[in-house]
User: What shape does this take?
Amino acid sequence: MSDKEELKAVLITGANSGIGRKTLELLIDKGYFVYAGARKDKDIEELNKLPNTLAIKLDVTNDEQVKQAIETITKEGRGLYGLVNNAGIVVFGPIITTSMEMMKDLFEVNVYGPHRMTLACFPLLRKSKGRIVNISSISGILTGKILGLYSMSKHALEAYSDTLIQNAADFDMNVSVIEPGNFKSDIGSNLIEKMRKEEESYRINMTAVQRKQQFKEVEEGFSTDHGFPEPFKVAEAIFDALFSEKPKLRYLVCGNEEEVKWVIKRMFVELLQLNHNHEYSFDKKVLIDILDECISEMK
Ligand SMILES: NC(=O)c1ccc[n+]([C@@H]2O[C@H](COP(=O)([O-])OP(=O)(O)OC[C@H]3O[C@@H](n4cnc5c(N)ncnc54)[C@H](OP(=O)(O)O)[C@@H]3O)[C@@H](O)[C@H]2O)c1
Assistant: This one.
Protein backbone atom coordinates (compact mmCIF):
# COMPACT_ATOMS: atom_id res chain seq x y z
CA MET A 1 0.00 0.00 0.00
CA SER A 2 1.42 3.44 -0.95
CA ASP A 3 1.67 6.38 1.51
CA LYS A 4 -1.12 8.06 -0.39
CA GLU A 5 -3.48 5.12 0.19
CA GLU A 6 -2.71 5.01 3.91
CA LEU A 7 -3.92 8.58 4.42
CA LYS A 8 -7.69 8.20 4.22
CA ALA A 9 -9.25 10.88 2.05
CA VAL A 10 -12.58 12.63 2.47
CA LEU A 11 -14.38 14.95 0.07
CA ILE A 12 -16.31 17.78 1.72
CA THR A 13 -18.62 19.92 -0.39
CA GLY A 14 -18.83 23.58 0.61
CA ALA A 15 -15.63 23.28 2.64
CA ASN A 16 -14.74 26.99 2.66
CA SER A 17 -17.00 28.18 5.47
CA GLY A 18 -19.15 27.26 8.46
CA ILE A 19 -19.65 23.58 9.21
CA GLY A 20 -17.67 22.42 6.16
CA ARG A 21 -14.64 24.47 7.15
CA LYS A 22 -14.69 23.32 10.79
CA THR A 23 -14.93 19.71 9.61
CA LEU A 24 -12.01 20.21 7.23
CA GLU A 25 -9.89 21.65 10.05
CA LEU A 26 -10.75 18.77 12.38
CA LEU A 27 -9.96 16.14 9.75
CA ILE A 28 -6.57 17.56 8.81
CA ASP A 29 -5.80 18.00 12.49
CA LYS A 30 -6.48 14.29 13.00
CA GLY A 31 -4.21 13.38 10.09
CA TYR A 32 -6.66 12.75 7.28
CA PHE A 33 -6.53 14.11 3.74
CA VAL A 34 -9.32 16.39 2.54
CA TYR A 35 -10.58 17.21 -0.93
CA ALA A 36 -12.13 20.58 -0.19
CA GLY A 37 -14.96 21.55 -2.53
CA ALA A 38 -15.36 25.30 -3.03
CA ARG A 39 -16.88 27.53 -5.70
CA LYS A 40 -14.83 30.71 -5.61
CA ASP A 41 -11.23 31.03 -6.83
CA LYS A 42 -10.22 33.07 -3.79
CA ASP A 43 -11.50 30.31 -1.47
CA ILE A 44 -9.69 27.65 -3.51
CA GLU A 45 -6.46 29.59 -3.27
CA GLU A 46 -6.83 29.99 0.47
CA LEU A 47 -7.79 26.34 1.10
CA ASN A 48 -4.80 25.11 -0.91
CA LYS A 49 -2.50 26.72 1.66
CA LEU A 50 -3.70 24.22 4.29
CA PRO A 51 -1.77 20.99 4.91
CA ASN A 52 -3.17 17.71 3.55
CA THR A 53 -5.78 19.60 1.57
CA LEU A 54 -6.48 19.78 -2.12
CA ALA A 55 -9.12 22.34 -2.98
CA ILE A 56 -11.35 21.47 -5.89
CA LYS A 57 -13.61 23.83 -7.80
CA LEU A 58 -16.96 22.26 -7.13
CA ASP A 59 -20.45 23.58 -7.58
CA VAL A 60 -22.73 20.66 -6.72
CA THR A 61 -25.27 21.79 -9.32
CA ASN A 62 -22.70 21.63 -12.12
CA ASP A 63 -22.34 18.21 -13.79
CA GLU A 64 -19.09 19.11 -15.55
CA GLN A 65 -17.41 20.32 -12.35
CA VAL A 66 -18.56 17.20 -10.50
CA LYS A 67 -17.12 15.02 -13.28
CA GLN A 68 -13.82 16.89 -13.20
CA ALA A 69 -13.64 16.64 -9.42
CA ILE A 70 -13.92 12.85 -9.62
CA GLU A 71 -11.27 12.76 -12.35
CA THR A 72 -8.91 14.79 -10.14
CA ILE A 73 -9.52 12.56 -7.11
CA THR A 74 -9.02 9.43 -9.20
CA LYS A 75 -5.76 10.76 -10.67
CA GLU A 76 -4.48 11.65 -7.19
CA GLY A 77 -4.47 7.91 -6.49
CA ARG A 78 -5.31 7.87 -2.79
CA GLY A 79 -8.88 6.64 -3.31
CA LEU A 80 -11.82 8.14 -1.48
CA TYR A 81 -13.01 6.96 1.92
CA GLY A 82 -15.65 9.57 2.75
CA LEU A 83 -18.09 11.99 1.18
CA VAL A 84 -19.58 14.76 3.30
CA ASN A 85 -22.59 16.26 1.54
CA ASN A 86 -22.41 19.58 3.34
CA ALA A 87 -23.04 22.27 0.70
CA GLY A 88 -26.39 23.90 1.28
CA ILE A 89 -28.35 27.10 1.06
CA VAL A 90 -31.31 28.55 2.88
CA VAL A 91 -34.19 30.45 1.32
CA PHE A 92 -36.76 32.51 3.14
CA GLY A 93 -40.41 33.39 2.77
CA PRO A 94 -43.89 31.89 2.78
CA ILE A 95 -44.52 29.03 0.34
CA ILE A 96 -47.21 31.10 -1.31
CA THR A 97 -44.61 33.64 -2.47
CA THR A 98 -42.29 30.93 -3.81
CA SER A 99 -41.87 30.80 -7.56
CA MET A 100 -41.18 27.46 -9.25
CA GLU A 101 -37.77 28.84 -10.20
CA MET A 102 -36.88 29.48 -6.56
CA MET A 103 -38.00 26.03 -5.46
CA LYS A 104 -36.04 24.36 -8.24
CA ASP A 105 -32.89 26.35 -7.38
CA LEU A 106 -33.12 25.32 -3.73
CA PHE A 107 -33.69 21.64 -4.50
CA GLU A 108 -30.89 21.73 -7.08
CA VAL A 109 -28.40 22.49 -4.27
CA ASN A 110 -29.88 20.87 -1.14
CA VAL A 111 -31.41 17.71 -2.62
CA TYR A 112 -30.17 16.98 -6.15
CA GLY A 113 -26.66 18.16 -5.10
CA PRO A 114 -26.15 15.35 -2.56
CA HIS A 115 -27.56 12.81 -5.02
CA ARG A 116 -25.34 14.06 -7.87
CA MET A 117 -22.31 13.81 -5.56
CA THR A 118 -23.31 10.39 -4.22
CA LEU A 119 -23.72 8.97 -7.72
CA ALA A 120 -20.41 10.42 -8.88
CA CYS A 121 -18.45 9.24 -5.81
CA PHE A 122 -20.09 5.85 -5.56
CA PRO A 123 -17.52 3.84 -7.58
CA LEU A 124 -14.65 5.18 -5.43
CA LEU A 125 -16.56 4.79 -2.16
CA ARG A 126 -17.63 1.28 -3.08
CA LYS A 127 -14.02 0.33 -3.60
CA SER A 128 -12.97 1.65 -0.18
CA LYS A 129 -16.17 0.41 1.56
CA GLY A 130 -16.41 4.03 2.54
CA ARG A 131 -18.91 6.32 4.22
CA ILE A 132 -21.32 9.06 3.25
CA VAL A 133 -22.41 11.76 5.68
CA ASN A 134 -25.37 13.94 4.74
CA ILE A 135 -25.78 17.27 6.49
CA SER A 136 -29.46 17.75 7.13
CA SER A 137 -30.80 20.03 9.87
CA ILE A 138 -33.29 20.15 12.72
CA SER A 139 -35.37 21.63 9.88
CA GLY A 140 -35.39 18.10 8.49
CA ILE A 141 -37.77 17.33 11.37
CA LEU A 142 -39.33 20.72 12.14
CA THR A 143 -41.34 22.89 9.76
CA GLY A 144 -41.96 26.63 10.08
CA LYS A 145 -44.11 29.23 8.43
CA ILE A 146 -41.23 31.16 6.92
CA LEU A 147 -38.45 28.61 6.49
CA GLY A 148 -40.83 25.97 5.13
CA LEU A 149 -39.11 25.67 1.80
CA TYR A 150 -35.69 25.04 3.40
CA SER A 151 -37.40 22.60 5.69
CA MET A 152 -38.94 20.78 2.68
CA SER A 153 -35.49 20.33 1.20
CA LYS A 154 -34.07 18.95 4.46
CA HIS A 155 -37.08 16.63 4.94
CA ALA A 156 -36.28 15.30 1.47
CA LEU A 157 -32.65 14.76 2.50
CA GLU A 158 -33.83 12.85 5.58
CA ALA A 159 -35.88 10.44 3.46
CA TYR A 160 -33.06 10.26 0.92
CA SER A 161 -30.61 9.31 3.68
CA ASP A 162 -32.97 6.70 5.15
CA THR A 163 -33.20 4.88 1.85
CA LEU A 164 -29.52 5.36 0.94
CA ILE A 165 -28.54 3.83 4.29
CA GLN A 166 -30.27 0.60 3.21
CA ASN A 167 -28.88 0.64 -0.36
CA ALA A 168 -25.33 1.34 0.80
CA ALA A 169 -25.43 -1.49 3.34
CA ASP A 170 -25.58 -3.92 0.38
CA PHE A 171 -22.06 -2.70 -0.53
CA ASP A 172 -20.71 -2.68 3.07
CA MET A 173 -20.83 1.09 3.00
CA ASN A 174 -22.23 3.26 5.78
CA VAL A 175 -24.42 6.36 5.58
CA SER A 176 -25.21 8.73 8.46
CA VAL A 177 -27.26 11.88 8.61
CA ILE A 178 -26.48 14.88 10.82
CA GLU A 179 -29.16 17.19 12.17
CA PRO A 180 -27.51 20.37 13.48
CA GLY A 181 -29.44 22.97 15.45
CA ASN A 182 -28.40 26.62 15.11
CA PHE A 183 -24.66 27.18 14.74
CA LYS A 184 -22.55 30.10 13.64
CA SER A 185 -21.82 30.08 9.90
CA ASP A 186 -22.14 32.18 6.74
CA ILE A 187 -25.54 30.74 5.87
CA GLY A 188 -27.41 33.90 6.98
CA SER A 189 -25.09 36.36 5.22
CA ASN A 190 -25.21 34.19 2.10
CA LEU A 191 -29.01 34.38 2.21
CA ILE A 192 -28.92 38.19 2.50
CA GLU A 193 -26.49 38.38 -0.41
CA LYS A 194 -28.68 36.10 -2.51
CA MET A 195 -31.81 38.12 -1.76
CA ARG A 196 -30.00 41.35 -2.61
CA LYS A 197 -29.30 40.03 -6.12
CA GLU A 198 -32.67 38.40 -6.52
CA GLU A 199 -34.74 39.11 -9.64
CA GLU A 200 -38.28 40.33 -8.90
CA SER A 201 -39.66 37.35 -10.81
CA TYR A 202 -38.14 35.04 -8.21
CA ARG A 203 -41.02 35.71 -5.84
CA ILE A 204 -44.69 35.77 -6.67
CA ASN A 205 -47.87 37.00 -4.99
CA MET A 206 -45.98 39.90 -3.43
CA THR A 207 -46.02 43.64 -3.95
CA ALA A 208 -42.78 45.64 -4.11
CA VAL A 209 -43.54 46.99 -0.62
CA GLN A 210 -43.98 43.47 0.79
CA ARG A 211 -40.74 42.38 -0.88
CA LYS A 212 -38.92 45.27 0.74
CA GLN A 213 -40.43 44.45 4.13
CA GLN A 214 -39.44 40.79 3.77
CA PHE A 215 -35.88 41.74 2.87
CA LYS A 216 -35.74 44.00 5.96
CA GLU A 217 -36.88 41.09 8.16
CA VAL A 218 -34.18 38.86 6.71
CA GLU A 219 -31.49 41.52 7.14
CA GLU A 220 -32.50 42.07 10.76
CA GLY A 221 -32.93 38.38 11.54
CA PHE A 222 -29.91 36.91 9.81
CA SER A 223 -27.22 39.60 9.97
CA THR A 224 -26.53 39.04 13.67
CA ASP A 225 -25.11 35.72 14.81
CA HIS A 226 -27.50 35.50 17.81
CA GLY A 227 -24.59 34.16 19.84
CA PHE A 228 -24.89 30.78 18.15
CA PRO A 229 -21.90 28.53 18.97
CA GLU A 230 -19.14 27.78 16.48
CA PRO A 231 -19.95 24.42 14.85
CA PHE A 232 -17.18 22.40 16.58
CA LYS A 233 -19.71 19.87 17.91
CA VAL A 234 -21.11 19.36 14.42
CA ALA A 235 -17.62 18.70 13.04
CA GLU A 236 -17.06 16.15 15.83
CA ALA A 237 -20.30 14.38 14.96
CA ILE A 238 -19.28 14.25 11.29
CA PHE A 239 -15.91 12.86 12.34
CA ASP A 240 -17.62 10.15 14.39
CA ALA A 241 -19.91 9.28 11.48
CA LEU A 242 -16.86 8.96 9.22
CA PHE A 243 -14.46 7.07 11.42
CA SER A 244 -15.99 5.50 14.52
CA GLU A 245 -16.34 1.73 14.63
CA LYS A 246 -20.05 1.99 15.29
CA PRO A 247 -21.29 5.14 13.56
CA LYS A 248 -24.79 6.26 14.48
CA LEU A 249 -27.47 6.51 11.87
CA ARG A 250 -28.62 9.95 13.08
CA TYR A 251 -26.68 12.63 14.92
CA LEU A 252 -28.84 15.35 16.45
CA VAL A 253 -26.36 18.09 17.40
CA CYS A 254 -27.79 21.08 19.23
CA GLY A 255 -26.32 24.06 21.04
CA ASN A 256 -28.86 23.87 23.87
CA GLU A 257 -31.55 21.67 25.42
CA GLU A 258 -34.38 23.82 24.09
CA GLU A 259 -33.54 22.94 20.48
CA VAL A 260 -33.49 19.24 21.35
CA LYS A 261 -36.92 19.59 22.95
CA TRP A 262 -38.37 21.26 19.80
CA VAL A 263 -37.30 18.25 17.76
CA ILE A 264 -38.37 15.49 20.15
CA LYS A 265 -41.70 17.24 20.84
CA ARG A 266 -42.35 17.63 17.11
CA MET A 267 -41.82 13.88 16.64
CA PHE A 268 -44.34 13.15 19.45
CA VAL A 269 -46.86 15.58 18.00
CA GLU A 270 -46.61 13.95 14.58
CA LEU A 271 -46.94 10.50 16.14
CA LEU A 272 -50.07 11.59 18.04
CA GLN A 273 -51.55 13.22 14.92
CA LEU A 274 -51.08 9.95 13.01
CA ASN A 275 -52.67 7.97 15.85
CA HIS A 276 -55.57 10.34 16.37
CA ASN A 277 -59.17 9.22 16.11
CA HIS A 278 -59.31 6.46 13.53
CA GLU A 279 -60.43 2.83 13.62
CA TYR A 280 -56.96 1.48 14.47
CA SER A 281 -55.81 4.17 16.93
CA PHE A 282 -53.69 2.75 19.75
CA ASP A 283 -54.24 3.57 23.42
CA LYS A 284 -51.45 4.94 25.61
CA LYS A 285 -50.45 1.50 26.93
CA VAL A 286 -49.94 0.10 23.41
CA LEU A 287 -47.98 3.22 22.44
CA ILE A 288 -45.66 2.64 25.41
CA ASP A 289 -45.28 -1.04 24.44
CA ILE A 290 -44.27 0.07 20.92
CA LEU A 291 -41.80 2.52 22.43
CA ASP A 292 -40.28 -0.31 24.53
CA GLU A 293 -40.06 -2.48 21.39
CA CYS A 294 -38.22 0.31 19.54
CA ILE A 295 -35.84 0.84 22.47
CA SER A 296 -34.89 -2.85 22.52
CA GLU A 297 -34.42 -2.86 18.72
CA MET A 298 -31.97 0.08 19.01
CA LYS A 299 -29.73 -1.77 21.50
N1 LIG B 1 -25.34 26.73 10.48
C1 LIG B 1 -26.40 26.15 10.91
O1 LIG B 1 -26.97 26.56 11.94
C2 LIG B 1 -26.97 24.93 10.23
C3 LIG B 1 -27.99 24.24 10.88
C4 LIG B 1 -28.51 23.12 10.28
C5 LIG B 1 -28.02 22.69 9.07
N2 LIG B 1 -27.04 23.39 8.44
C6 LIG B 1 -26.56 22.87 7.15
O2 LIG B 1 -25.16 22.78 7.20
C7 LIG B 1 -24.64 22.87 5.88
C8 LIG B 1 -23.52 23.90 5.84
O3 LIG B 1 -24.07 25.17 6.09
P1 LIG B 1 -23.36 26.29 6.97
O4 LIG B 1 -24.30 26.65 8.04
O5 LIG B 1 -21.98 25.91 7.31
O6 LIG B 1 -23.44 27.51 5.96
P2 LIG B 1 -22.33 28.29 5.07
O7 LIG B 1 -21.28 28.82 5.97
O8 LIG B 1 -23.11 29.23 4.22
O9 LIG B 1 -21.72 27.12 4.18
C9 LIG B 1 -22.41 26.60 3.10
C10 LIG B 1 -21.40 26.09 2.11
O10 LIG B 1 -22.10 25.54 0.98
C11 LIG B 1 -21.54 26.09 -0.19
N3 LIG B 1 -22.47 26.08 -1.31
C12 LIG B 1 -23.62 26.75 -1.48
N4 LIG B 1 -24.17 26.48 -2.68
C13 LIG B 1 -23.32 25.59 -3.27
C14 LIG B 1 -23.30 24.94 -4.51
N5 LIG B 1 -24.27 25.12 -5.43
N6 LIG B 1 -22.27 24.09 -4.80
C15 LIG B 1 -21.28 23.89 -3.90
N7 LIG B 1 -21.22 24.52 -2.73
C16 LIG B 1 -22.23 25.35 -2.40
C17 LIG B 1 -21.12 27.50 0.20
O11 LIG B 1 -20.21 28.00 -0.76
P3 LIG B 1 -20.08 29.59 -1.04
O12 LIG B 1 -19.30 30.15 0.11
O13 LIG B 1 -19.36 29.64 -2.35
O14 LIG B 1 -21.47 30.14 -1.12
C18 LIG B 1 -20.50 27.21 1.56
O15 LIG B 1 -19.21 26.71 1.39
C19 LIG B 1 -25.81 23.21 4.97
O16 LIG B 1 -26.26 22.04 4.33
C20 LIG B 1 -26.86 23.72 5.94
O17 LIG B 1 -28.16 23.55 5.47
C21 LIG B 1 -26.51 24.51 8.98
Observations:
- The CA atoms of residues 117 and 183 lie 24 Å apart.
- The longest helix spans residues 148-169.
- The beta strands are 9-12, 33-38, 53-57, 82-85, 131-135, 174-180, 250-253.
